[in-house]
Specification:
Elements (H helix, E strand, L loop, with lengths): L2 E18 L4 E14 L5 E5 L10 H12 L11 H10 L9 H25 L4 H4 L6 E8 L8 H14 L3 E5 L5 H15 L4 E5 L6 H11 L4 E5 L7 H11 L4 E3 L6 H9 L5 E2 L9 H13 L3 E2 L5 H10 L6 E4 L5 H6 E3 L3 E2 L2 E3 L9 E2 L1 H7 L1 E7 L2 E4 L23
Parallel strand pairs: 4-5, 4-11, 5-6, 6-7, 7-8, 8-9, 9-10
Antiparallel strand pairs: 1-2, 2-3, 4-14, 12-15, 13-14, 16-17
Helix pairs in contact: 1-3, 2-3, 5-6, 6-7, 7-8, 9-10
Length: about 400
């Protein structure tokens, strides 16, 4: 079953409001659509990653890396040689040495996107959902919302209302954004979420590398009164390893990290340095399911559990496949048109859980009309400009409205 072609279309979709964490603001949801064709019929057709949320100017580079650098390692090979194709493509990452970290991350993201598409085609060819193909440990998984973002000067009443919405939507809990205000303010926000959600509501905290080590330790000690499930990326990036190990030693909160890592060796370093209780690599950022599953097995040998950064359509299969999987994560419907609108078929969240789909591969279907509507036109790209048919979520300085068609639907 020969792989015959790979094509990519970056997409950026508007959201109803901006979302701010400790060190960033998202004005839309970006992803890349990849289609992998085979000679015998099965097609891998997926969306992958969120790097275009805050960096739409990288769309042309990401598309080029997928089609010009990664695809040649897959096209012409048998679909069932996913590991060999992945290793071949990974060897090309040698080009992206220490002085090119940004390009390196994009290349691994490009590899991850193609790897996911290849696995989707494998599942379809075998008429098997991927979570079963990868291990089939469970058929449902608990789900929490990513939320509690900073919105101007809104008080804790708005947070309480948000918690009620998540409960009405069927989520088991909330991953609350912290690290962008003082420790006092963030503890006040955490207290409001716990009070609104009640004792059974799962609450995790995500600082997005926003605290100093001292602030993270203070927050962790005070947050212990509110039954926090985990404390994610608690310290600034340049203190990651020693800093998170210190947070683990000095606070009772389980520490989570890994979403910013792109290779297995970096995740192993987190484990070896006693920096984490939970690893949460993103299979898009970390080279695809092929590498993510290796990280999961490595973590299992160290009694470290696994989460997954966003991407519920991929994460649900990976987390359900393994015995050491944690909660699935998804956004509020107003914050993620990719999950709620771009996907025509997806499982629903109910009573705090998601039932895995029984359709083959990833088991989701992408709305092609919405891809055409919100595709980023990379043909007129130059430094500092991305053309798109989307008008709201890109700054006017980066935008020109043009029709888009890049042939992703071609057989």
């Amino acid at each position: 079953m020969e792989i015959t072609s790979v094509s990519a279309t970056p997409v950026v979709m508007p959201t109803d409001s901006d979302l701010s964490g400790s060190g960033y603001t998202k004005t839309g949801r970006g992803t890349v659509i990849v289609r992998l064709n085979t000679a015998d019929g099965p097609v891998g057709f997926i969306h992958s990653g969120d790097i275009l949320d805050s960096s739409p100017s990288k769309a042309a580079t990401l598309k080029s890396l997928i089609e010009d650098r990664v695809a040649p390692h897959f096209v012409g090979n048998d679909l069932m040689t996913v590991e060999r194709c992945w290793q071949s493509a990974m060897s090309e990452a040698n080009d992206f040495f220490a002085y090119r970290p940004d390009k390196r991350q994009l290349y691994i993201h490009a590899l991850g996107a193609v790897n996911i598409a290849a696995w989707d085609a494998v599942g379809k060819s075998l008429q098997t959902p991927l979570y079963r193909l990868w291990g089939g440990y469970r058929e449902s998984i608990p789900a929490i919302a990513i939320g509690g973002y900073y919105h101007g000067e809104e008080g804790t009443d708005a947070l309480a209302e948000e918690v009620t919405e998540y409960q009405d939507l069927g989520f088991a809990g909330l991953k609350l954004k912290v690290g962008g205000r003082s420790v006092d303010e963030d503890i006040e926000r955490l207290a409001a979420v716990r009070e609104a959600g009640g004792d059974e509501f799962v609450v995790a905290c995500d600082a997005n590398q926003g605290y100093s080590v001292e602030q993270a330790v203070e927050f962790g000690r005070r947050a212990a009164d509110y039954d926090v499930e985990w404390f994610e990326e608690p310290v600034v990036w340049y203190e990651q390893y020693a800093g998170m190990a210190e947070v683990r030693r000095k606070t009772p909160l389980p520490v989570t990290a890994g979403q910013s890592e792109s290779v297995m060796s970096a995740c192993r370093r987190l484990v070896d340095n006693d920096a984490v209780d939970i690893l949460n690599p993103d299979s898009s950022i970390a080279g695809g399911p092929t590498q993510w599953l290796k990280i999961a097995r490595m973590a299992e040998t160290a009694n470290v559990t696994m989460a997954h950064h966003e991407e519920p359509h991929i994460a649900m299969h990976l987390l359900a496949a393994i015995p050491n999987g944690e909660y699935l994560e998804a956004f509020h419907p107003t914050a993620d048109p990719v999950w709620y609108d771009l996907l025509k078929t997806r499982p629903t969240i109910s009573d705090g859980t998601v039932e895995l789909p029984d359709r083959p591969g990833l088991g989701v279907e992408i709305d092609r009309d919405l891809v055409d509507k919100y595709a980023v036109d990379t043909s007129t790209w130059r430094s500092g400009q991305v053309s798109s048919r989307i008008g709201r979520c890109l700054p006017l300085s980066m935008l020109s409205i043009v029709p888009v068609w890049d042939g992703i639907w071609r057989e």
